[in-house]
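User: Hello! My lab partner asked me to get a predicted holo structure for this protein. The small molecule is NAP, SMILES included with the sequence. Please write out the structure tokens.
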Amino acid sequence: MNIRLPFQFPAATLIVAYDKNRGIGYQGQIPWYISEDMRFFRNITDGQLVVMGRKTFQSLSKPLKNRYVVVMTKQNLCALQSYPAYDNNVAACSSYIKLLATCFDVMYKFNKTTNFIIAGGAEIYKQWLTYPGLYAILTTEIEAEYCVDTFFPQLPEGWTGLDTTLHCQGNLKYNRTLYVKKI
Ligand SMILES: NC(=O)c1ccc[n+]([C@@H]2O[C@H](COP(=O)([O-])OP(=O)(O)OC[C@H]3O[C@@H](n4cnc5c(N)ncnc54)[C@H](OP(=O)(O)O)[C@@H]3O)[C@@H](O)[C@H]2O)c1
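Assistant: Hello! Below are the structure tokens for the protein in complex with NAP.
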């Protein structure tokens, strides 16, 4: 039986940077600093609703200016207030369904298009990779190996790389790819 949902899932884009072994983090931090990649993240997320896990939020050294951040956590908003990235544009969300409700709410409030960005870490990527509204994945794959303890999962079936561009910072090379769902 074909069931038609009475609404469209808000559209989401996932953004991630990983090394040769799909490593994304070490001891709660990103193991590299690539200034152009940071700028790229800023540009993509500027003015957008950004979803991240509590551990990733905890790792940020300051608030993400001009972005609305929804932090997935089983704790309440008060628990986030001691973190350096906390400001008035931060909300806490305790489940996938509540997050979608928050997205609708924020989109309505800010009169924005139905789009949000999934910004990690590993636990969050894992849960959102199968989200029906996910329509684009932007990856930065660094051609180097780091000491890592957190990984980006393999993409599920049905994704294809559309466009890859090679970038360099000093001797460090990295490839940026846009993945979309095969139709
Ligand atoms: N390279 C990259 O592009 C990139 C991007 C982002 C992050 N990172 C790195 O990734 C690492 C962090 O990843 P991680 O997997 O350890 O942690 P994470 O995904 O950032 O956060 C995990 C936390 O999110 C909350 N959470 C997860 N699923 C939930 C759900 N369904 N409902 C409610 N809350 C939920 C829980 O918070 P509570 O414990 O508070 O309940 C959980 O402890 C760091 O090293 C970070 O630097 C790398």
